[in-house]
Automatic annotation (TrEMBL):
<feature type="domain" description="Peptidase S55">
    <location>
        <begin position="161"/>
        <end position="400"/>
    </location>
</feature>
<dbReference type="InterPro" id="IPR014219">
    <property type="entry name" value="SpoIVB"/>
</dbReference>
<keyword id="KW-0720">Serine protease</keyword>
<dbReference type="InterPro" id="IPR008763">
    <property type="entry name" value="Peptidase_S55"/>
</dbReference>
<keyword id="KW-0378">Hydrolase</keyword>
<dbReference type="Pfam" id="PF17820">
    <property type="entry name" value="PDZ_6"/>
</dbReference>
<dbReference type="InterPro" id="IPR041489">
    <property type="entry name" value="PDZ_6"/>
</dbReference>
<dbReference type="GO" id="GO:0008236">
    <property type="term" value="F:serine-type peptidase activity"/>
</dbReference>
<protein>
    <submittedName>
        <fullName>SpoIVB peptidase</fullName>
    </submittedName>
</protein>
<keyword id="KW-0645">Protease</keyword>
<dbReference type="Pfam" id="PF05580">
    <property type="entry name" value="Peptidase_S55"/>
</dbReference>
<dbReference type="InterPro" id="IPR036034">
    <property type="entry name" value="PDZ_sf"/>
</dbReference>
<dbReference type="InterPro" id="IPR001478">
    <property type="entry name" value="PDZ"/>
</dbReference>
<dbReference type="InterPro" id="IPR009003">
    <property type="entry name" value="Peptidase_S1_PA"/>
</dbReference>
Amino acid sequence: MNKYLFNTITGGILLVSFVVCLIFSSFINNAYAIDISRSETEKTSVATGRTFHNKDELLQLAGFPGENEKAVAAREIRVIPGGQSIGIKLNTFGVLVVGHHLVETAGGKQSPGEKAGIRVGDMITEINGKRIEKMQDISAFVQRAGQEAEPLQMTIRRNQKMVHTELQPLKDKNEQSFKIGLYIRDSASGIGTLTFVEPRSQKYGALGHVIADADTKKPIIVQGGEIVKSKVTSIEKGRNGNPGEKLAQFSTGQKKLGDIKRNSPYGIFGRLNEPLSDNLAKKSYPVALSHEVKEGPAKILTVINGEKVEWYDIEIVSTIPQKYPATKGMVLKVTDKRLLDKTGGIVQGMSGSPIIQNGKIIGAVTHVFVNDPTSGYGVHIEWMLNEAGISLTETEKSEAS
């Protein structure tokens, strides 16, 4: 099995270990965590010109019921917290364009794809009316069109719109084959952390944020995928200006834990094939809505060695009651000496680690602050549950069964 070193993208850090499967690569066996999006440290202030005399008044202004109101009270739903390190294998919807290259022809260097108006980030979905699902589907079309001097009829998905264009492959004078002048790929792999499992439906959520392509920086449109167990082999400790990372292993030969049906701003979602077998997976917890989260002590579940899920202490520094879904709902700080000694705080690959406070699951770890690896952001659990299709209120139709 080939091994590849993941290149780290500079800037803010989303805590998922993620790497693309290049055109000539097989799935990664030894996965190094990298960041896939930018993160920034933000300061939040409220200036309303009013003084709030009680908590109910503040909650009502935010669009939530007061504590004595039950109009939109959460129903009693329980989920099993995760914390397990997982390997992620994604298949894209079509073939993703990640770059242009020049074809050295007898008439000079040209890029047929660029000439056809195809852009980085475009998704090739059809050629000559035939659906394209993987890179191997393209080769036969390209060689035939080149030999017959007929342009390819390309259907491209671009920013939720379908675009049609013609592309004429050109012959590379050195390799004597026809090329389209595009760098493409159809899959990606990486590691992250499982957040929760709903025990009745076996629906799960993980990561807490979107998986974006490393080159285009755009969210990957998923057409299937799977999660498998992964094993943390070592930790690179985080320091100011240099967040750490989990190093973990998984392979294509491992048993599939579940599928991937959705890649959204709040994580990846799907169903497990069967219940998890470790001891922590036997106990379910109720969930807390965003306005129920308190500043103060909490705990996270995560793996820093092998496959063992352990509890670690954190502090909720600030939390924002949210009427509408948002990816950054709370600021947290690691206070557990064991975790600080081993990792320096929050590290890449920890994304999705569930947060538990007062006996309830309140959210998941998502970001680390580059200049302070002991601190980062978390997402509220209710938004992840919504994305998974799990109803939170009495008035909503339950999709968990």
